[in-house]
Structure formats: structure tokens, C-alpha cells
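Our consortium's second objective concerns turning raw sequence data into structural hypotheses that experimental partners can test. To show how far this objective has progressed, the report includes one record in full. It was chosen at random from the queue rather than selected for favorable results. The single chain below, 375 residues long, was entered without modification.
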Amino acid sequence: MFCFQCQETAKNTGCTIKGMCGKPEETANLQDLLIFVLRGIAVYGEQLKELGQPDHANDDFVLQGLFATITNANWADSRFVSMIEDGLVRRDKLKAAFMAAYKAKNGRDFGGVLPEAATWTGTAADFAEKAKSVGVLSTAHEDVRSLRELLIIGLKGIAAYAEHAAVLGFRKNEIDDFMLEALVSTTKDLSVDEMVALVMKAGGMAVTTMALLDEANTTTYGHPEITEVNIGAGKNPGILISGHDLKDMEELLKQTEGTGVDVYTHGEMLPANYYPAFKKYPHFVGNYGGSWWHQNAEFESFNGPVLLTTNCLVPLRKDNTYLDRLYTTGIVGYDGSKYIPSRPAVGTKDFSAMIAQAKTCKPPIELETGSIVGG
């Protein structure tokens, strides 16, 4: 294991035994292998684009795969194994399409050299061992390694923004194309100037993606307003929602309407209180608790179900008792939590089980009273 993607990394150099976030070595390694597989998908995606046959069928998978590897998002090894298996199937389908397109255009089979990420294959039984050889330190040259990993970390942030925008129906091909271009670049021997240029391009693409997400959020839910947010607790049972996914927030509010179950935000979901579209729901009580790193205590005292839509999820402590009330969805995973599947192509996510459990729970324990102002 070697992970240095966050500011909490051990000794400011890298976590090598267990993440400061709590991430086990096995999980970190599987995340590395997923990135490796995404690189292979990108290789064939780029090749098909060069042949004039761009394939966007895997754009969502690439975004979700990168997003799942950010700090405090997904802790479930089984989810990563499934994503790696899915990724290998997707990669090999792209490979077949590329080989056929190349032969059709050139009249001969492709005979070029491909990076290992585009050719390696294995079963779940092989993943743990293979993962040890494809991580950050597999690039020997320190400067090359640093530039490649800076780019990959940038892609993870872009993927998070782009995924949230895509859920609301907003996307730009230039963002998806750059994801492939950047992933492929980390399999090539490029000059320092070329790698620096790609890192700078990632910065520009991040701004483009944030602008797209702002357009998605404000078009769908209105422009955030200066708002006085209640921080007290009501007398009804409640559901606590954290993360950044406003689509999940919208669907949860609609499905809890008239049920006697209140909804509260926590941590990263606090800004949902500022959007005009959510203010029409009287059972949207306000915000409960403080920052993400308080959640071990605050999820405990909330008493009702807790829904994590994205990062940040902190591992439970031995004395925590809320695992049976913890729900995850989207790219979030945690062993023992209840996972709410993705919404169908036409329809919404189904929060009915969580709502039913909420009705059996006690109201939240009030931590504070009054309000805060934001917007």
C-alpha cells in the first residue's frame, strides 16, 4: 500500500500500512487496481476515437470508478471487486471493437504494442496479488510518478463534479474525452513538459466541470439564497442525509412527504438548505450536527437512519451502534450498511425501506438550538 492522495497522509509522505482515514491496505490496493483497469479502458477509447469511431458507452463507468476511489467514499472491498470485474469486461469489449475497426480501415490486424493495462486479465482470485504491482510506486522515477499521480488525483475531483452534473442530465463530451486522454497519458513515456501541460489542462477542465455542475444545480433547483438554517431537532423521527448528491436529496424529500418522517442534512449536504426548490418541504427541518469528522458521535445520537450519498464516510468505532441504520448509495460503500441501488433509466431510487425503518426510531437527540446563516 502507498496512498498520498489526501492532506492527512502519514508523515506528509504517504500511508503504507493503513490509511490515516482508516482505509485498510487491501482496500487501497483494490482501488489501485481499479485505476489500472480504467487506464486500459481509456487506451482503447482513445484508439477508437483516433479511428473516427468514438465510444461513449463507458463514460459514466469511468467517472464513477474514479469517484469511488476518493478519500472516505467507499470502504467495501466487494464493491471494488465487482467494479474491477465489470471494468475488465468493458475493456475487452472495447478491445474487440478497436481490433475490428483497425482491420476494417487498414486491411490487416493490429500489431502494435499496448500497455499492460490494456492487456492484463485475471479473475477475482488474482486481484489482490496483481493490485500490489500496479499502485503508485510501480512508477520508479519520482518526478514522473509525482506528475502522473497529481494528474490522477485531479481526475478524481473532476469525476466527482462531472458525475453529479451527469445525474442531473448535464454533461460535456470535452470532459469525458479529457478523462480518457489523461488516463492514457499515464501509460506513456512523456516528457516533463508534456506531463506538466496535462496537469495544467486538468486544472482548466476542473473549472469547466465546476461551471457545468453549477449550471446543473441552479437550473434544476434554483440559485442558493441567504438562508437561516435551523440547527435544533424536532419531535418526529428523522432521516439524516450527508454527501453532495442533490438528486438524492430531492427524491428523498418527495418520498418522505406526508409520512411523518423529518429530513435533516449533515456535513457536506448543508448547502441543500439554501436551494429554493427544497424550501417548499415543511418536513425538511434543517441541519443536524457539525462537520463530517463528528459523525461517529452525531450519527449515534441522531437515532434514525443515516444516508451517505457521497464522501465523507468515517469508519464506525467499536462502540458505535448505528450500522443497522446506515444506508449507502451511489459510489459509497461500507460493509454491513444497507445499499440503495442506482435509479433505473426511468424512475427514482427507492428509499422506502429506510423510511419504514425511520418510523420505528426515536426522534433525534437535540445537540443544539437556534440557527445558522448561510447561502
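The partners drew two points from this record. The mean pLDDT is 97. The beta strands are 227-230, 238-242, 262-265, 284-287, 306-308, 326-329, 338-340, 371-374. Both points have been shared with the crystallography group to help prioritize constructs.
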